[in-house]
Amino acid sequence: MSDGSRLPPGVDEHDISTRKIWIWYKIKCWVRKLLFLPATREIGVLADMVWQLHQEAEAVLGKRVKGVAASSPDRVRLTRYEIKDILDYLWLEDLVGDRKKVFFDQLFSMAAATAGYSDGLCPSYTDAYKCEKEEHQLPSRWILQLDFSHQSLSGAMDLKGTARHLWADAEFVDFALGADHRPHEDDSAEQEYWDKLEARIREFVESNHRPEKLYLTGEDATEPRFLEVVRNALADLTSPPVLEVLNHTVSIGSADIFQFATSMGAAEFAKRRQEGMANCLLPEQCRGKAPERNTEL
Q1: pLDDT at residue 293 is higher than 80
Q2: Burial of 196 by CB count in 10 Å (0-12 exposed, 13-18 middle, 19+ buried)?
Q3: Which CATH number applies to 111-275?
Q4: What is the pLDDT averaged over residues 65-80?
Q5: In the Cβ-directed half-sphere of 185, how many Cα atoms lie within 13 Å?
Q6: Would you kindly state where each structural domain of the chain is located, as residue ranges?
Q7: Is 79 exposed, middle or buried (0-12, 13-18, 19+ CB in 10 A)?
Q8: Which of 4, 248, 222, 264 is nearest to 114 (CA)?
Q9: Global confidence as pTM
């Protein structure tokens, strides 16, 4: 809808005759939340995923985690209302969303990955106006993100200067090309798998723009054969400097970045939120004033 919420099946925002369906849907969600249930079944599934990650994070840190910085895939684009429903059910604070919308109120995976690579970020983020000027001077480039995980191969492309740019201009996801679908016992079947993966990447890039920057993400992004396929797929579709990232994937540090880039980026945005990025309500109220800092997590 125009307010950013997702319409349930059978509802047309411009058809007044479907308004009853919308009202009844909202009432059911509200009642479920009053009963301490997920707003919808779909929200329940997503909440369970977030809760499992939350429990693992607490086990690793040895501390109670009360806030979450969540990014959603560009292909799915969970709305801020859906994120709120998930976190309300789990009694967790959203460290990214903000009703004031001074800079942004949603975070998607490509933007988070950009920040995870320490790209597209202003140095003076506690000063809203300084940050805006610094980001205005950042060069815009066509960025290609390729994510290779156990479950899927996905890609996103967008013209970005700042990491705060909301969602990707184009994206795809192919669940048949995840690393878990790679045949290991049949050489010919394995070669066919890699050929399909290379063709899918080429098809996506050829239907969009010549990439000027490449980000790799996902737990399988350092697989040597995958890197070879990416190099072959992009050899004539971009310039050699763009492919230099493929030469620096052997170190443990790079592997960590590929696997956790979106998480690192979301954490960076959450830190900036807490340190003052969102405390400026309106331009005329903030100009020349240092924003109050909120460091409570």
Answers
A1: no
A2: middle
A3: 3.30.420
A4: 83
A5: 0
A6: 16-94, 111-275
A7: middle
A8: 264
A9: 0.78
